[in-house]
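Researcher: We're teaching a course module on how sequence relates to structure. For the next exercise, students receive a sequence and then see the predicted structure as C-alpha cells, so they can try to spot secondary structure elements on their own. Here is the exercise chain.
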Amino acid sequence: MDDRYILAIDQGTTNTKALLVNAMGEIVAKASRPLSVRYPEPGWVEQDAEDIWQSVEEAIAEVMSHCSPRQLMALAISNQRESVVIWERTSGKPVGPCVIWQCRRSSHFCSELRAYGLEQEVRQRTGLTIDPMFSAGKARWLLAHIPDGFHRAAQGELCLGTVDAWLLWNLTRGRVHACDVTNASRTQLMNIRTLAWDGRMLDLYGIPAAILPQIRPSSFIYGETGAIGHVPAGIPIASMIGDSHAALFAHAGFQPGSIKATYGTGTSLMTPTPQPLISQYGLSTTIAWMRDKPTYALEGNILATGAAVQWLSDVLSLADPAQIEALAAQVADNGGVYLVPAFVGLGAPHWSESARGLIAGLTRGTSAAHLARATLEAIAFQVRDVFDAMQTEAAIPLTMLFADGGASRNNLLMQLQADIIGRPVRRSTLAELSALGAAYLAGLAVGLWADEEDIAKVIVARDCFEPRLSASERARMYAGWQDALARTLYRLSGQLVGGRNKGAS
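Model: And here is the predicted structure for the students to work with:
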C-alpha cells in the first residue's frame, strides 16, 4: 500500500487549511486556522502578511502530527488571488499590509486609466477589465505609500508577490521568488498570450520589473522547502495555483463545456476555452492552469455572495451564518423582496465599482425569513448573470454546473441555483476542492499520477440538484432580479452608475 502523501496548503481570505492527500486522492488529515480581516477605511480591506504566514506554519504543524516526514512526497499551494504583499528582499519582512482582493483603495487610479481611454488596450493585453480587484493597482498604491518605495523597488531591494509567491518565499527560506501563471494572470501585469510580464502594463502602473517574481507553470518543481517545524528541508514544492483555478481542476473540468462555481466570500465561475477569448460581456480571460502548455478559460468574478449571508447574519444578530438557510426555508418564496448585495460595487458581468447595495420590494409583511431567502436568491441570480454571459461568449452548451466552496454546503442555495439557471447543479461532497486541485497538480509533477485520466479516476462523488421550476416561473423570478439590478445600476436620471453596463467592453 502506498503511504506517500501530498501536503496541500489552501490559503484563503478567512482561513488557512492544510491537508494530507494520499495516492487515492483521499484526504487523510486536515487542519485549519482562522484569519482576521481589517477594514481601515470604507472600501479598504487588508490582512497582516505575517499573520498569513503564521497561520500556514500552524496548520502545517497540526496536520503533520498525522504522518512521518519521510511520507511527504511533495508540497502544493492554492491561494486567495489578486491579493498583494511587498517585502524586503534581505530581511523577508513585509513593508506594508497584504492588500486583499476585495480592496477598492486603487479605485481612483483605475478611473484615471479608463478616462484616458485605455480600457480596450488593457483588456487586449491582459484579458482583464480595469478594476481595483486586480493586483496592479494595489501594488502601485503600496509602492506609493512605502517610503522611497518606487526607488527601492527599482533597485531590487523589495519583492512584490501574490500570496503564492509570499508563501513560496517563506517555505524556501528566501531562496525562490516565483509565482504561478494563474496568479500572474490575475495581476493585470501579465500578457495573456506571451505569459510574460508585459512592459506596457508595467509602465502604466509604474511597477519596476526588478520587484516581480518569475512566472512558472502551475504543475512544476519550484524549489525545495527549508526546515519548517515538522517539515524537513528538501521536500519539493511541486504546484502553485489560484484557488478558483484549482477547484476547476479538482472537478476534472478539463474540457470546454465544463463550468464550475466556487462559492466563498465572493463567487468565481470558470469555464475552459480552446484559446484566449477577449470578452465583450464583462468576463475575464485567464489561465485555468498550465502544465506543458496553458489551458485558457473565461472567468466571472462576483464580489459578494457568502459575504451577503455573513452581512445578513450580522444584521439579524444570528450566532451562526448557517442559520440563514433554516430561516429562509420558513417561507415558500421571497415575498417580492430582492436584495442586490453591491456592498463594494458589482463585479462580473456588470463591473460597476460605484454601485451600492439595495433592497427592493419591502412591505409591512416582509419578515426576516423573506430577507434570508432574498439573500440566497441574490447569490443564485448573480451566478446566473455570469452563467448566461459565459454561454453566449463560449458558444458551447453549458449543460450543468459544478459547485464547491463553503457556501455550497447550503442545500437550499444549491436548489435555488439549479432552479434559477435551469440546469442541474453537481456539488462536490468535499469542501476542500481548491487544496485537492493543487495536490493533484503536485502529484502530476512528481509522478504520483501519470495524467489527467488518472486524476479523473480519483474524483470524489457529487450531490445532484435538479431544477424544479417551470420556465415561466423562472422567467418571472429573474425579471424581478433584473428590475432590482436596474435600480442599483441606474440613477433616477437614467445615468449608469460607474459608467459601464453588461455589454460594455
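Model: If you want an answer key for the exercise: DSSP finds 16 helices and 21 strands in the chain. Residues 5-244 form a domain with the Nucleotidyltransferase; domain 5 fold (CATH 3.30.420.40).
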